[in-house]
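Example (one chain per record):
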Amino acid sequence: MQKEVLVHVEHLYRYYGHTCAVQDVSFELAKGEVLGFLGPNGAGKSSTMQIITGNLAPSAGSISVHGIDLLDSPKRAKTEIGYLPEQPPVYRELTVDEYLTYCARLHHVARGQRDRAVRTAKERCGLGDVGRRLIGNLSKGYRQRVGIAQAIIHTPAVVILDEPTVGLDPIQIREIRALVRELGEEHGIILSTHILPEVQATCSRVQIIHQGQLVFADSITGLEQRLNATSLVAAFHARPDLDTLQQLPGVSAAESLPDGRIRIHYRDTDPSEALIEQAVSKHWRLYELTPERRTLEQIFIELTCSEQTADAPEEAA
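Predicted structure:
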Protein backbone atom coordinates (compact mmCIF):
# COMPACT_ATOMS: atom_id res chain seq x y z
CA MET A 1 0.00 0.00 0.00
CA GLN A 2 1.47 3.33 -1.06
CA LYS A 3 1.91 5.87 1.73
CA GLU A 4 0.40 9.33 1.56
CA VAL A 5 3.10 11.90 0.75
CA LEU A 6 2.79 14.91 3.06
CA VAL A 7 5.89 16.92 2.12
CA HIS A 8 7.41 17.08 -1.35
CA VAL A 9 10.60 19.12 -1.74
CA GLU A 10 12.10 19.37 -5.21
CA HIS A 11 15.37 20.99 -6.40
CA LEU A 12 15.58 23.42 -3.51
CA TYR A 13 18.23 26.17 -3.58
CA ARG A 14 19.01 29.03 -1.24
CA TYR A 15 21.71 31.65 -1.80
CA TYR A 16 23.12 34.18 0.64
CA GLY A 17 24.86 36.56 -1.74
CA HIS A 18 27.21 34.35 -3.73
CA THR A 19 27.16 31.55 -1.14
CA CYS A 20 24.88 28.59 -1.87
CA ALA A 21 23.64 27.36 1.52
CA VAL A 22 21.13 24.85 0.08
CA GLN A 23 21.95 23.16 -3.21
CA ASP A 24 19.51 21.01 -5.19
CA VAL A 25 17.86 19.37 -2.17
CA SER A 26 14.97 17.02 -2.95
CA PHE A 27 13.11 14.61 -0.65
CA GLU A 28 9.66 13.43 0.41
CA LEU A 29 8.01 12.77 3.76
CA ALA A 30 5.10 10.34 4.04
CA LYS A 31 2.44 9.98 6.71
CA GLY A 32 3.65 7.71 9.50
CA GLU A 33 7.33 8.54 8.97
CA VAL A 34 9.77 10.18 11.37
CA LEU A 35 12.56 11.68 9.28
CA GLY A 36 15.81 12.45 11.08
CA PHE A 37 17.51 15.48 9.53
CA LEU A 38 21.21 15.73 10.39
CA GLY A 39 24.01 18.07 9.48
CA PRO A 40 27.00 19.85 11.03
CA ASN A 41 26.90 23.56 11.78
CA GLY A 42 26.88 25.57 8.56
CA ALA A 43 25.67 22.63 6.47
CA GLY A 44 22.38 24.26 5.42
CA LYS A 45 20.14 22.29 7.76
CA SER A 46 18.60 25.28 9.51
CA SER A 47 18.08 27.10 6.21
CA THR A 48 16.26 24.06 4.81
CA MET A 49 14.06 23.81 7.90
CA GLN A 50 13.20 27.51 7.73
CA ILE A 51 12.27 27.19 4.06
CA ILE A 52 10.01 24.19 4.68
CA THR A 53 8.21 26.01 7.51
CA GLY A 54 7.68 29.06 5.29
CA ASN A 55 9.93 31.35 7.34
CA LEU A 56 12.53 31.75 4.59
CA ALA A 57 11.99 32.08 0.85
CA PRO A 58 13.95 29.70 -1.40
CA SER A 59 16.05 31.04 -4.26
CA ALA A 60 14.70 28.23 -6.45
CA GLY A 61 12.76 25.02 -6.14
CA SER A 62 9.31 23.93 -4.98
CA ILE A 63 7.74 22.72 -1.72
CA SER A 64 4.30 21.24 -1.29
CA VAL A 65 2.74 20.41 2.08
CA HIS A 66 -0.18 17.99 2.06
CA GLY A 67 -0.67 18.75 -1.62
CA ILE A 68 -0.59 22.55 -1.17
CA ASP A 69 2.13 24.59 -2.83
CA LEU A 70 3.91 26.51 -0.08
CA LEU A 71 5.00 29.31 -2.41
CA ASP A 72 1.67 29.79 -4.19
CA SER A 73 -0.58 29.38 -1.11
CA PRO A 74 1.59 29.98 1.96
CA LYS A 75 -1.25 30.57 4.43
CA ARG A 76 -3.08 27.38 3.43
CA ALA A 77 0.12 25.34 3.44
CA LYS A 78 1.15 26.60 6.87
CA THR A 79 -2.11 25.39 8.38
CA GLU A 80 -0.79 21.87 7.69
CA ILE A 81 2.48 22.51 9.58
CA GLY A 82 3.21 22.40 13.30
CA TYR A 83 6.60 23.74 14.31
CA LEU A 84 8.67 23.55 17.48
CA PRO A 85 11.82 25.71 17.26
CA GLU A 86 14.89 24.86 19.32
CA GLN A 87 13.76 27.48 21.85
CA PRO A 88 10.07 26.70 22.55
CA PRO A 89 7.90 29.82 21.95
CA VAL A 90 6.13 29.60 25.30
CA TYR A 91 4.93 32.47 27.49
CA ARG A 92 6.15 31.76 31.00
CA GLU A 93 3.64 34.10 32.63
CA LEU A 94 0.64 32.14 31.27
CA THR A 95 -0.78 28.88 32.53
CA VAL A 96 -0.61 25.87 30.22
CA ASP A 97 -4.35 26.11 29.51
CA GLU A 98 -4.17 29.84 28.78
CA TYR A 99 -1.22 29.44 26.46
CA LEU A 100 -2.65 26.51 24.50
CA THR A 101 -5.99 28.29 24.14
CA TYR A 102 -4.11 31.30 22.77
CA CYS A 103 -2.24 29.03 20.31
CA ALA A 104 -5.52 27.46 19.21
CA ARG A 105 -6.83 30.95 18.40
CA LEU A 106 -3.64 31.79 16.47
CA HIS A 107 -4.15 28.63 14.41
CA HIS A 108 -7.79 29.58 13.72
CA VAL A 109 -9.27 26.63 15.56
CA ALA A 110 -13.01 27.25 15.64
CA ARG A 111 -14.29 28.72 18.94
CA GLY A 112 -16.49 25.72 19.68
CA GLN A 113 -13.58 23.29 19.15
CA ARG A 114 -10.86 25.06 21.13
CA ASP A 115 -11.52 23.43 24.50
CA ARG A 116 -11.48 20.00 22.90
CA ALA A 117 -8.33 20.82 20.95
CA VAL A 118 -6.57 21.93 24.14
CA ARG A 119 -7.68 18.78 26.02
CA THR A 120 -6.53 16.53 23.20
CA ALA A 121 -3.12 18.20 22.88
CA LYS A 122 -2.60 18.01 26.66
CA GLU A 123 -3.53 14.34 26.75
CA ARG A 124 -1.22 13.44 23.88
CA CYS A 125 1.68 15.32 25.45
CA GLY A 126 1.18 14.17 29.02
CA LEU A 127 0.08 17.57 30.34
CA GLY A 128 -3.27 16.60 31.80
CA ASP A 129 -2.31 17.42 35.41
CA VAL A 130 -0.54 20.75 34.81
CA GLY A 131 -3.14 22.77 32.89
CA ARG A 132 -3.52 25.39 35.62
CA ARG A 133 0.18 25.75 36.41
CA LEU A 134 2.27 28.66 35.19
CA ILE A 135 4.58 27.61 32.36
CA GLY A 136 7.45 29.44 34.08
CA ASN A 137 7.12 27.08 37.07
CA LEU A 138 7.39 23.90 34.98
CA SER A 139 10.55 21.87 34.46
CA LYS A 140 12.31 22.19 31.12
CA GLY A 141 11.00 18.77 30.11
CA TYR A 142 7.42 19.88 30.68
CA ARG A 143 8.05 23.14 28.84
CA GLN A 144 9.20 21.06 25.88
CA ARG A 145 5.95 19.12 26.11
CA VAL A 146 4.02 22.39 26.07
CA GLY A 147 6.02 23.42 22.99
CA ILE A 148 5.09 20.18 21.24
CA ALA A 149 1.45 20.60 22.31
CA GLN A 150 1.27 24.01 20.61
CA ALA A 151 2.73 22.46 17.47
CA ILE A 152 -0.02 19.82 17.23
CA ILE A 153 -3.01 21.68 18.66
CA HIS A 154 -4.45 22.35 15.18
CA THR A 155 -3.87 18.71 14.12
CA PRO A 156 -1.43 19.51 11.29
CA ALA A 157 -0.36 16.88 8.79
CA VAL A 158 3.34 17.67 9.33
CA VAL A 159 5.16 18.34 12.60
CA ILE A 160 8.67 19.79 12.49
CA LEU A 161 10.76 19.54 15.65
CA ASP A 162 14.10 21.31 16.00
CA GLU A 163 16.35 19.78 18.69
CA PRO A 164 13.43 18.77 20.96
CA THR A 165 15.57 17.06 23.64
CA VAL A 166 18.47 19.50 24.03
CA GLY A 167 19.17 20.23 27.70
CA LEU A 168 16.86 17.54 29.08
CA ASP A 169 17.83 14.88 31.60
CA PRO A 170 17.91 11.18 30.54
CA ILE A 171 14.40 10.43 31.82
CA GLN A 172 12.94 13.48 30.08
CA ILE A 173 14.79 12.56 26.87
CA ARG A 174 13.30 9.08 26.94
CA GLU A 175 9.80 10.48 27.48
CA ILE A 176 10.08 13.03 24.64
CA ARG A 177 11.45 10.38 22.28
CA ALA A 178 8.51 8.11 23.10
CA LEU A 179 6.15 11.03 22.43
CA VAL A 180 7.79 11.71 19.05
CA ARG A 181 7.43 8.06 18.04
CA GLU A 182 3.75 8.15 19.05
CA LEU A 183 3.13 11.34 17.08
CA GLY A 184 4.82 9.72 14.09
CA GLU A 185 2.02 7.20 13.85
CA GLU A 186 -0.53 9.86 12.83
CA HIS A 187 1.59 12.65 11.36
CA GLY A 188 4.69 13.06 9.26
CA ILE A 189 7.54 14.18 11.53
CA ILE A 190 10.77 15.96 10.59
CA LEU A 191 13.20 15.79 13.50
CA SER A 192 16.28 17.99 13.39
CA THR A 193 18.90 16.88 15.89
CA HIS A 194 22.62 16.77 16.64
CA ILE A 195 22.16 13.74 18.91
CA LEU A 196 23.01 10.77 16.70
CA PRO A 197 21.63 8.01 19.00
CA GLU A 198 18.31 9.89 18.97
CA VAL A 199 17.98 9.18 15.25
CA GLN A 200 18.34 5.44 15.73
CA ALA A 201 16.00 5.48 18.74
CA THR A 202 13.25 7.59 17.18
CA CYS A 203 13.36 7.84 13.39
CA SER A 204 12.23 5.59 10.55
CA ARG A 205 14.39 7.42 7.97
CA VAL A 206 17.49 9.56 8.12
CA GLN A 207 19.13 12.07 5.82
CA ILE A 208 22.37 14.02 6.21
CA ILE A 209 23.07 17.39 4.64
CA HIS A 210 26.62 18.69 4.12
CA GLN A 211 27.71 21.92 2.44
CA GLY A 212 24.15 22.44 1.24
CA GLN A 213 23.72 19.02 -0.38
CA LEU A 214 22.08 15.82 0.76
CA VAL A 215 24.92 13.32 1.05
CA PHE A 216 22.98 10.46 2.69
CA ALA A 217 19.36 9.36 2.64
CA ASP A 218 18.13 5.95 3.70
CA SER A 219 15.70 4.10 5.93
CA ILE A 220 16.79 3.05 9.40
CA THR A 221 16.76 -0.54 8.12
CA GLY A 222 19.13 0.45 5.32
CA LEU A 223 21.26 2.36 7.82
CA GLU A 224 21.49 -0.70 10.07
CA GLN A 225 22.79 -2.70 7.12
CA ARG A 226 25.47 -0.06 6.53
CA LEU A 227 26.43 -0.29 10.20
CA ASN A 228 27.07 -4.02 9.97
CA ALA A 229 30.64 -5.15 10.39
CA THR A 230 32.88 -4.62 7.36
CA SER A 231 36.18 -5.35 9.06
CA LEU A 232 37.76 -7.77 11.52
CA VAL A 233 40.54 -7.28 14.02
CA ALA A 234 42.76 -10.36 14.40
CA ALA A 235 45.74 -11.18 16.60
CA PHE A 236 48.21 -14.03 16.05
CA HIS A 237 51.12 -15.49 17.98
CA ALA A 238 52.74 -16.34 14.63
CA ARG A 239 51.73 -13.36 12.57
CA PRO A 240 51.13 -13.99 8.81
CA ASP A 241 52.10 -11.58 6.03
CA LEU A 242 49.52 -8.98 5.07
CA ASP A 243 49.73 -10.13 1.43
CA THR A 244 48.72 -13.63 2.50
CA LEU A 245 45.67 -12.34 4.33
CA GLN A 246 44.64 -10.21 1.36
CA GLN A 247 44.36 -13.40 -0.74
CA LEU A 248 41.49 -14.69 1.41
CA PRO A 249 38.02 -14.67 -0.27
CA GLY A 250 36.27 -11.33 0.09
CA VAL A 251 39.20 -9.51 1.70
CA SER A 252 39.82 -6.09 0.18
CA ALA A 253 42.72 -4.94 2.38
CA ALA A 254 44.73 -5.77 5.49
CA GLU A 255 46.57 -3.28 7.68
CA SER A 256 48.82 -3.45 10.71
CA LEU A 257 47.66 -1.74 13.90
CA PRO A 258 50.02 -0.06 16.38
CA ASP A 259 49.41 -2.75 19.02
CA GLY A 260 50.50 -5.55 16.68
CA ARG A 261 47.04 -6.71 15.69
CA ILE A 262 45.78 -6.71 12.11
CA ARG A 263 42.63 -5.08 10.72
CA ILE A 264 41.13 -7.04 7.83
CA HIS A 265 38.68 -5.20 5.55
CA TYR A 266 36.17 -7.12 3.48
CA ARG A 267 33.32 -6.42 1.08
CA ASP A 268 30.41 -8.85 0.80
CA THR A 269 31.83 -12.13 2.09
CA ASP A 270 32.83 -12.47 5.74
CA PRO A 271 36.25 -14.14 5.65
CA SER A 272 36.15 -15.33 9.28
CA GLU A 273 35.67 -19.02 8.48
CA ALA A 274 38.39 -19.05 5.80
CA LEU A 275 40.73 -17.15 8.10
CA ILE A 276 40.25 -19.65 10.94
CA GLU A 277 40.87 -22.57 8.58
CA GLN A 278 44.06 -20.99 7.28
CA ALA A 279 45.22 -20.12 10.79
CA VAL A 280 44.80 -23.73 11.89
CA SER A 281 46.44 -25.28 8.83
CA LYS A 282 49.39 -22.84 8.81
CA HIS A 283 49.83 -22.66 12.58
CA TRP A 284 49.37 -18.91 12.88
CA ARG A 285 48.03 -19.46 16.41
CA LEU A 286 45.08 -17.10 16.13
CA TYR A 287 43.98 -15.93 19.59
CA GLU A 288 41.66 -13.01 18.81
CA LEU A 289 39.10 -12.38 16.09
CA THR A 290 36.70 -9.47 16.63
CA PRO A 291 34.21 -8.04 14.12
CA GLU A 292 34.19 -4.24 14.02
CA ARG A 293 30.77 -2.62 13.79
CA ARG A 294 30.56 0.87 12.37
CA THR A 295 28.59 3.53 14.21
CA LEU A 296 26.31 6.26 12.90
CA GLU A 297 28.88 8.72 14.22
CA GLN A 298 31.56 7.17 11.98
CA ILE A 299 29.30 7.39 8.92
CA PHE A 300 28.39 10.99 9.82
CA ILE A 301 32.06 11.97 10.15
CA GLU A 302 33.01 10.21 6.92
CA LEU A 303 30.32 12.12 5.02
CA THR A 304 30.92 15.51 6.60
CA CYS A 305 34.65 15.63 7.39
CA SER A 306 35.60 17.71 4.36
CA GLU A 307 36.67 21.26 5.09
CA GLN A 308 33.84 23.68 5.81
CA THR A 309 33.49 26.81 3.71
CA ALA A 310 35.38 29.46 5.63
CA ASP A 311 33.15 32.38 4.71
CA ALA A 312 29.77 30.67 5.19
CA PRO A 313 27.31 33.17 6.66
CA GLU A 314 25.67 32.58 10.00
CA GLU A 315 22.26 32.15 8.32
CA ALA A 316 23.50 29.04 6.51
CA ALA A 317 23.79 27.08 9.75
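Caption: The chain is about 30% helix and 30% strand.
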